[in-house]
Design the sequence.
């Protein structure tokens, strides 16, 4: 019943009156508002105009007053002025008709008044007025007291909660739903709001989900509205439709955790007929308020390839004009024409200008043709491309691919029939069967449902728990192993279909009007027979029956019993004996395979069991579905450079066909690859991802639940290349010349030529009279190859239009757009007409080549030059500038110094003597950029000296051709050049290169994106190439070295040279004085072809060998020779040296000198004589001699090769002589002498002197008390060393005042009593026989002053030291004397002048008297005498001498003793 309330709403703690019957609430609302609104008011329209603004509004009844539909934001639309300029929004008011606004007919209104209104009035007037007032007063007081108590309790509660919240331990807590959202059931087109209240700290973040997909209110403007205020959160769904039926989840999350609450929204739709009086919904896009949107889809995605498990994004940029803020087009994605919705497998995003579809985990189910549909109010635009999904890498080698499209075909409370599609890849072995796994929703545990693999792609899963939901997956198995599991199915509940239908509810129309179509159940009536019972599916595992309920209506609680009967018997057995089924569909299991059964069904209810239905025909248990037959007539058709269209004839015997799998193979490879991994339903498929230029064959097989068919016969091979189509229309029709009855036209080549060369053009013309076009006439019957044509038989002073069609081998294309209207009137201007057929070649980052054809109309005089203009493509017309200042004579030019990446356009003007003529048509924009893979022409000279130009193109198509030109005119004369093409390479070979071949050679590759290059053959380049060609024709074997001679051991003579490059086929001729030499005893020849070394060896030279030796080399065509002349003194020296080497070899057979006797100086200036000896043994002796006398003998040396030494520590003249070392043993004797007499000794001493000189220090200055001394030190000094002192570069003549000498290793020059005359430059020169070594010092200026001052100081100090008073000696330190004895002490004194003498006792002066006598004799001796000492004479005595130069003292101690005391002490 429409007025019933679901149980989950009745028992909900927040249930209130909003859950009343929508019909009753609407009627009450209408009655309450009837006094304020007049029902049936007609719709009126009011039009107001203000300042050019046109706004149309419609007024009517407020639906919000009459309907429980929640208020929502009204739609906004554009406001435009009279010029259709957008300047704002307006809010129009749309209302329905009177009947729709009221929602009831007049009859219904009367019935309402007779019921609800009448009862309300009667209750109102039966109560007394006083009673009502008294009740109101008491109620008011009670409410006031109750409100005060509630307020106080609330304040106390909030105070406690505040302190509880302020506790640090409990301040932060996870979110908690104080009020959870409630489930709702609404009619279609109504609005619904879900509420919840959430607490938590920190404040939780709340997100709403629809079927586990987050809701983005911005991307669904007007559909969803989210609000959050004071921990109260709401989701409003505006104008619900059937797609809004879903489970909604609200998730609250903070740093402490996450919590979710769920609510279901069920949207009902009416299935009956819609009232014709209700307004019908608008279908299709409409344009409102004069705004027409233009939609363009750019930056599209192409054919895409992915693999299972990967992620992929498809995206397009959408441009909508005019661009309006906050305008939301409808973005829809389709796969194989089926609308997609967001799910866990794919996400859709709209960023304002780009639509994106993202696959989070690719599956083979995702393969298909994807279409983006962008809908605005003015129409829609679509874009489509195919997405291929390959199988993931198998976990087991040669395992099959995963099954796909796992679905639940039928579900009941105790079984679910699962179906799937077989994979395209079987791994190379036939698939043995499939395993089905199930998983209960909410768990992750998968259970295998079948013990043995099933081959049929359907399987009934039993053993389920009623009321629980399950997911399924399928795995394929072959002899190699198990496949990966398929994608899991959607969850499905194990429940009776009737219960599932009741849970889904009924539907309602989009208008919101409720029409009750069910009848009240009739009680106590037994139902009749079920109708149309049939076996809808039969396999060896199960049989599915279906039927229609009995024809009677209003039966209460009808259920069914199913009965079976084995054919040939009359025994009917009830299958579901315990519980009857509620739905008119039932699956039977555990039937005996091969037996034949009949089935029937009975209805039952509380009144009883009805009559059985008519039995079905006899059904044999077994698979009724056969594997389909193989397709046939597979025909591949060229499509693009990477795809082929494959068509085939459908399988003739195919029941319940799922689709077809296509496989392709490169011819000869025997390797088949699937072209699709998801079955296609049609008989035509485009196979993408093929290799351009390869030939493929294809085969097809059909698939249904029973399995895969045999493969079709293989197709004919097809080459993968673009299909040929008729060309696009030409464009840019211009007039090149006009005479009285004809006009010359020119046009541009079509942008698309259809994949084949254009074979010609057809021109049509029509006359235009006063703007009215006539009929088209053919100007030419035969196709013309040029892009210029003279149309004849025209009428003078008439206007014409022209159109051109291009033709190729595929046919004639569509005509071009009609040209501008041209007047047929003869040109009489003096300047030339426009050049035409401008072409751009050889585009590089900084240059390009522009070609053109001369104007057809020459003007008064012949054309004598051309001017080329250039400008940036986006620049204004004023930006045109000239490329050349001087007119170009040729009809091509290379334009240089372009800015890389900039886009340019060009035009050409011709000139004659009268002036510069009209400009040509502008070229297409050209980007100055060198394309990747661009090649240049390379010049090569082969081994035969043939000169060729070579060009390679990497972007060739099967129809591409190489076109060679000279000076940009195609080469057709083969007399000068021979053209050869092989694959993607072309060669232009010069036959007889000469001056007539000088020019610019270019090569163009057709059917490419302008692949071209050029090469300039100048006079200098031609000369160079001819020289290289001559070298290649008459090659010379290069030599690393010319013929040379050298001596080997034993005096052998070796003639040799080395070739740089020579092959194994090379030969050498040896020539002497024009006579060939051959291998023999005298001549030994050797030729190492790996290193190129050629040699000839002779044991010795004789006078007969004087002459010229020549080596002649041959290697194929290459030759070379080298000669060596040995005559005269050159030959004699070589012969002498050869003989010497022979003797040396003989000498070295015994002990010998490797290095002869010589000498060297050590760091200590010692002379060491040494020699290096070899081939020694223990018996070999080495004897040293000087002047024939043995001085040393070395025996038992103990080494084979070593050094013998003799050291002279300090060499002198006695060491001069002749030294000799003799080596001898039983093998022979060798001698080495060293002459150290006369010049030899002199040279040795010079080396010693040079060593001493180099060890000398710089000459220094010092002062003495006698004068100034110059000195230097040497490490070692030899008495034979000769030095010379110089003063002012002259040798010094020594005297008593200037002397020189040697002290140890110091060499000095003493200047006594120096004066100013002695200042100057002094030097000491060491004589070593080789120029000597000189050390200098400058004794002048400050150096002299300082030295002289120091001399004076030292001189004064010396004089003072010599003349000062001194005590020379004679006084003891201690004197011990016996009392009564006489003491006499004498000491020497000196000094000039004579010093004064003073004697002291105990530091007190004493004078001479009788007891102590003090005397000085001869001024040199001082005496101290005590005549008789006594004890008082003991003490410390001192003598002090003093003169003007100094003072000196001497001390002594006198000790006087008494003999008795001395003896007593001893005792």
Sequence:
């Amino acid at each position: 019943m429409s007025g019933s309330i679901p149980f989950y709403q009745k028992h909900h703690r927040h249930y209130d009156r909003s859950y009343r019957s929508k019909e009753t609430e609407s009627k009450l609302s209408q009655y309450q508002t009837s006094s304020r609104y007049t029902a049936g008011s007609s719709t009126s329209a009011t039009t107001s105009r203000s300042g050019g603004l046109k706004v149309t509004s419609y007024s009517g009844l407020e639906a919000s007053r009459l309907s429980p539909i929640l208020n929502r934001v009204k739609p906004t639309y554009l406001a435009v002025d009279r010029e259709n300029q957008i300047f704002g929004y307006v809010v129009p008011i749309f209302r329905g008709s009177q009947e729709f606004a009221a929602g009831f007919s007049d009859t219904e209104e009367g019935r309402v008044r007779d019921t609800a209104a009448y009862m309300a009035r009667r209750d109102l007037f039966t109560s007394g007025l006083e009673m009502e007032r008294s009740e109101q007063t008491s109620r008011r007081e009670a409410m006031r007291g109750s409100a005060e108590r509630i307020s106080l309790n609330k304040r106390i509660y909030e105070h406690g909660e505040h302190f509880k919240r302020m506790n640090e331990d409990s301040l932060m807590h996870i979110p908690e739903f104080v009020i959870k959202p409630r489930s709702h059931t609404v009619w279609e087109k109504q609005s619904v709001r879900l509420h919840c209240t959430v607490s938590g700290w920190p404040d939780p973040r709340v997100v709403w989900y629809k079927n586990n997909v987050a809701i983005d209110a911005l991307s669904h403007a007007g559909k969803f509205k989210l609000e959050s205020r004071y921990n109260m959160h709401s989701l409003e769904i505006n104008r619900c439709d059937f797609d809004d039926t879903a489970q909604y989840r609200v998730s609250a999350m903070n740093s402490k955790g996450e919590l979710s609450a769920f609510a279901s929204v069920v949207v009902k739709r009416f299935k009956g007929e819609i009232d014709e009086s209700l307004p019908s919904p608008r279908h299709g896009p409409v344009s409102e308020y004069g705004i027409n949107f233009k939609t363009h889809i750019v930056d599209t995605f192409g054919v895409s390839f992915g693999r299972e498990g990967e992620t992929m994004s498809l995206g397009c940029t959408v441009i909508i004009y005019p661009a309006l803020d906050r305008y939301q087009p409808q973005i829809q994605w389709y796969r194989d024409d089926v609308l997609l919705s967001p799910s866990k497998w794919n996400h859709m995003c709209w960023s304002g200008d780009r639509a994106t579809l993202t696959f989070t985990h690719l599956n083979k189910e995702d393969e298909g043709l994807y279409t983006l549909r962008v809908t605005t109010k003015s129409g829609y635009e679509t874009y489509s491309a195919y997405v291929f999904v390959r199988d993931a890498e198998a976990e087991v080698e040669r395992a099959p691919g995963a099954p796909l499209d796992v679905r639940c075909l039928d579900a009941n409370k105790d079984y679910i029939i699962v179906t799937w599609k077989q994979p395209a890849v079987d791994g190379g072995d036939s698939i043995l069967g499939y395993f089905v796994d199930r998983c209960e929703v909410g768990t992750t545990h998968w259970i295998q449902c079948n013990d043995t693999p099933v081959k049929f792609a359907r399987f009934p899963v039993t053993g389920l728990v009623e009321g629980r939901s399950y997911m399924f997956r399928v795995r394929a198995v072959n002899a190699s192993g198990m496949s990966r599991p398929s994608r899991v199915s959607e969850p499905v509940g194990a429940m009776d279909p009737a219960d599932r239908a009741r849970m889904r509810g009924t539907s309602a129309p989009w208008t919101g009007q409720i029409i009750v179509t069910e009848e009240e159940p009739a009680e106590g009536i037994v139902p009749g027979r079920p109708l149309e019972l049939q076996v809808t599916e039969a396999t060896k595992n199960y049989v599915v029956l279906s039927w229609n309920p009995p024809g009677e209506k209003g039966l209460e609680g009808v259920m069914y019993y199913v009965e079976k009967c084995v054919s040939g018997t009359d025994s009917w057995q009830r299958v579901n004996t315990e519980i009857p089924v509620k739905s008119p569909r039932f699956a039977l299991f555990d039937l005996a395979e091969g037996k034949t059964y009949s089935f029937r069904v009975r209805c039952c209810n509380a009144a009883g069991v009805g009559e059985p239905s008519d039995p079905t025909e006899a059904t044999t248990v077994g698979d009724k579905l056969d594997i389909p037959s193989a397709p046939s007539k597979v025909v591949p058709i060229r499509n693009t450079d990477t795809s082929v269209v494959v068509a085939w004839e459908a399988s003739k015997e195919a029941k319940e066909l799922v689709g077809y799998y296509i496989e392709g193979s490169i011819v000869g490879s025997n390797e088949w690859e699937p072209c699709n991994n998801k079955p296609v339903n049609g008989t035509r498929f485009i196979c993408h991802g093929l290799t351009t230029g390869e030939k493929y064959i294809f085969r097809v097989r059909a698939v249904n639940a029973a399995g895969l068919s045999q493969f079709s016969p293989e197709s004919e091979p097809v080459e993968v290349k673009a299909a040929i189509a008729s060309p696009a229309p030409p464009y840019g029709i211009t007039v090149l010349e006009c005479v009285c009855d004809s006009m010359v036209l020119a046009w541009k080549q079509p942008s698309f030529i259809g994949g084949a060369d254009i074979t010609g053009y057809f021109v049509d013309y029509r006359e235009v009279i006063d703007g009215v076009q006539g009929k088209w006439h053919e100007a030419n019957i035969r196709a013309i190859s040029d892009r210029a044509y003279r149309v004849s038989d025209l009428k003078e002073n008439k206007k014409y239009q022209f159109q051109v069609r291009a033709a190729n081998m595929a046919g004639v294309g569509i005509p071009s757009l009609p040209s501008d209207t041209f007047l047929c009137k003869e040109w009489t201007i003096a300047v030339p007409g426009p050049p035409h057929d401008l072409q751009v070649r050889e585009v590089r980052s900084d240059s390009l080549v522009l070609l053109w054809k001369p104007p057809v109309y020459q003007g008064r005089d012949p054309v004598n030059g051309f001017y080329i203009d250039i400008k940036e493509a986006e620049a204004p017309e004023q930006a045109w500038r000239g490329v050349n200042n001087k007119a170009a004579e040729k009809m091509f030019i290379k334009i240089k110094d372009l800015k890389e990446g900039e886009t340019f356009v060009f035009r050409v003007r011709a000139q004659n003597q009268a002036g510069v003529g009209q400009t040509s048509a502008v070229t297409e924009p050209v980007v100055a950029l060198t394309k990747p893979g661009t090649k240049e022409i390379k010049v090569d000279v082969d081994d035969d000296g043939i000169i060729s130009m070579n060009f390679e193109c990497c972007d060739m198509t099967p129809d591409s051709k190489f076109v060679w030109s000279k000076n940009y005119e195609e080469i057709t004369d083969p007399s000068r050049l021979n053209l050869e093409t092989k694959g993607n390479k072309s060669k232009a070979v010069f036959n007889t290169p000469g001056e007539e071949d000088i020019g610019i050679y270019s090569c163009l590759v057709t059917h490419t994106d302008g692949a071209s290059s050029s090469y300039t053959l100048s006079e200098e380049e031609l000369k160079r190439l001819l020289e290289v060609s001559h070298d290649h024709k008459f090659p010379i074997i290069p030599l690393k070295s010319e013929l040379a001679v050298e001596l080997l051991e034993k005096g052998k003579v070796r003639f040799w040279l080395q070739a740089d490059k020579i092959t194994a086929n090379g030969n050498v001729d040896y020539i002497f004085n024009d006579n060939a030499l051959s291998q023999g005893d005298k001549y030994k020849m050797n030729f190492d072809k790996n290193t190129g070394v050629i040699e000839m060896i002779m044991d010795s030279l004789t006078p007969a060998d004087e002459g010229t030796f020549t080596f002649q080399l041959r290697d194929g065509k290459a030759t070379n020779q080298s000669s060596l002349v040995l005559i005269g003194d050159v030959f004699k020296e070589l012969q002498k040296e050869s003989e010497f080497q022979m003797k040396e070899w003989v000498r070295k057979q015994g002990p010998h000198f490797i290095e002869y006797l010589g000498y060297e100086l050590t760091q200590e200036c010692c002379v060491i004589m040494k020699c290096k000896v070899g081939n020694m043994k223990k018996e070999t002796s080495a004897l040293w001699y000087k002047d024939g006398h043995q001085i040393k003998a070395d025996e038992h040396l103990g080494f084979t090769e070593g050094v013998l030494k003799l050291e002279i520590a300090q060499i002198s003249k006695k060491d001069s002589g002749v030294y000799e070392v003799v080596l001898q043993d039983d093998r022979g004797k060798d001698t080495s002498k060293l002459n150290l007499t006369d010049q030899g000794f002199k040279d040795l001493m010079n080396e010693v002197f040079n060593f001493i000189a180099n060890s000398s220090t710089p000459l220094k200055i010092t002062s003495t008390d006698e004068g100034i001394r110059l000195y230097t030190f040497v490490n070692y000094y030899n008495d034979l060393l000769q030095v010379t002192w110089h003063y002012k570069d002259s040798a010094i003549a020594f005297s008593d005042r200037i002397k020189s000498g040697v002290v140890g290793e110091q060499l000095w020059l003493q200047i006594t009593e120096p004066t100013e005359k002695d200042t100057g430059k002094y030097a000491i020169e060491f004589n070593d026989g080789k120029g000597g070594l000189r050390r200098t010092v400058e004794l002048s200026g400050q150096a002299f002053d300082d030295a002289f001052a120091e001399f004076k100081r030292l001189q004064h100090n010396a004089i003072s030291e010599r003349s000062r008073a001194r005590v020379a000696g004679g006084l003891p330190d201690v004197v011990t004397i016996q009392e009564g004895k006489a003491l006499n002490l004498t000491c020497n004194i000196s000094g000039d002048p004579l010093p004064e003498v003073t004697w002291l006792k105990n530091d007190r002066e004493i004078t001479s008297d009788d007891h102590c006598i003090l005397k000085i004799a001869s001024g040199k001796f001082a005496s101290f005498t005590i005549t008789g000492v006594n004890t008082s004479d003991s003490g410390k005595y001192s003598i002090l001498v003093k003169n003007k130069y100094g003072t000196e003292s001497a001390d002594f101690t006198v000790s006087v003793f008494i003999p008795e005391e001395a003896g007593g002490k001893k005792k």
